[in-house]
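INPUT
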Amino acid sequence: MTTYTLRAKRRRAALRTAAFMSPWLIGFGVFFAYPLISTVYFSFTHYDGFADPTFNGFKNWSYVFNDYPLFWPALRNTLWLVVVMVVCRVAFGLGIGLLITKIKTGTGVFRTLFYLPYLAPPVAATLAFVFLLNPGTGPVNSVLSDLGIPAPDWFTDPSWSKPALTMLAVWGVGDLMVIFMAALLDVPKEQYEAAELDGASSWQRFRFVTLPNISPIVMFAVVTGIIQTMQYYTQPLVAGKVASGIIGSSGQPFEPGYPDKSTLTLPQLVYNLGFQRFDYGSACVVALVLFALSMAFTALLMRRRGGLIQAGD
Amino acid sequence: MADMTYALDAPVATPAARVARRKALLHWIGVHALGVAAALFFVLPFVFIVLTSLMDNQQTLTRDLVPDHWQWSNYKKVFDTPGFLTWWRNTLLYAGLGTVLTVVSSVPVAYALAKFRFRGRNLSMMLVISMMMLPPQVIIIPMYLFWAKQLDLSGTLWPLIIPMAFGDAFSIFLLRQFLMTIPNEYLDAAKVDGCGELRTLLRVVLPMAKPGIAAVALFQFFYAWNDYFGPQIYASENPGAWTLSYGLESFKGAHHTDWNLTMAATVLVMAPVILVFFFAQKAFVEGVTLTGVKG
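OUTPUT
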């Protein structure tokens, strides 16, 4: 009798859990597991969306890695952005976070001003930066040439387009500022006092008290920054389109990456292959490369020991 | 720093105190000068955008920074552009309905992940995080084929709205982090009073979770407002289904060199987000912090 009620109780609990979890369980199946498996399948087929997909082995894979002219430039750009953009954002975010904890007058106003650009919708912010940095008459270059500083061509020069994007990304550093600010305020006061008693300089206090205390958050910012960079799509695409003067409406062919492939990123290749060249199979190959890279860094976030996001409790 | 206020308030100025006081003042000036410099970097782009949006289109092609005569009619012209109001309506539909669906579907999942004990919970949590980190482009080919070929919904925003009724990974994650901070005693007390799980969730947990829900709602609203890729895939073929973020770019195309109108439209796309932020600043900053702090 008791075991019977116990079992009934357990079954009720399981049903209850399933009921609460059901929206996500369906979502997981339909919007994650199924399309992911399909993507793997399509990557081994020739498929243009009209005729049925036909199996063609590793042909798409070899095409993407050996013959698709945009793949390696996009990967190199991603590497550049990971090294430069992520580091700049983290360093700048930490600097601004430190600054805001030191500001004693008008803290609220400063914090709001520092945070605001993070909220600017990406398309709007990118359009604005392409205008602000336009080589001929943009306000930035006007000011630079008034000061006698040689002004670069920013979004129209292949070697300056990524630095320009980096500036845009650094402008929107508000998210990191808030995270670092919270972490900095969490550092125990006593440790600073002890260091001061020992005669530590302000650099030493930063190096031996602040940094060790916030290093998990710095790591978190770096790893999530890398993951975001893998997904970097809207800003480079819009910057390339607007700067080139070619605004593609849906049907218009548009070679991404202006100028000279310098703003290409992997997600743009999925769009280019899938929705401009109608080569769904090869698009899925790039998608899987993107998937593998993102998941590798996500795994780093979730590592059991020293993991930055605790999946368990 | 605390020692600075102490030094500034010191009534008797011994030589040592005077030195400390001068140091503190210099420190204050240095920090705030840096603060102002940083503020300029963050604010000036907004200032230039607004100034440009008020110029006439001849002047935008000069190196002037300030309008000669302030042409407020630029904003009216933007509103009169065919489609602009439709994009507004579509954006509100996508962002508004999407947000409601996300919250309704994500709260119970987050609650189960935060408070139920069941086998596969940690695995589920890891899968939620993986979904959260998944670039949308990874699964776009099958998803597009699903919505466009099987359900014939391309040219609408429904392929973007409907999935939000099935839980959003980021919202689930953030809400779960928030719900973990609610002490179990409250839930136990509710159960002693004879509440089932659903009633406990609705009567006890939801009122306490308001800040978390507010943060999730804001994030989701902004996500939809800012989304470019989604509308590009599903709505590009039908301008009647465009959103502001997607339409804004074509606006630049239609008005080639009219940077003043493009910047006015840019201001109009940015403004609502910034207004919402001012009204909900606290919830928002709390939400950002929550994403960064370990569970």
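end of record. The domain at 76-292 of chain B is CATH 1.10.3720.10 (MetI-like fold).
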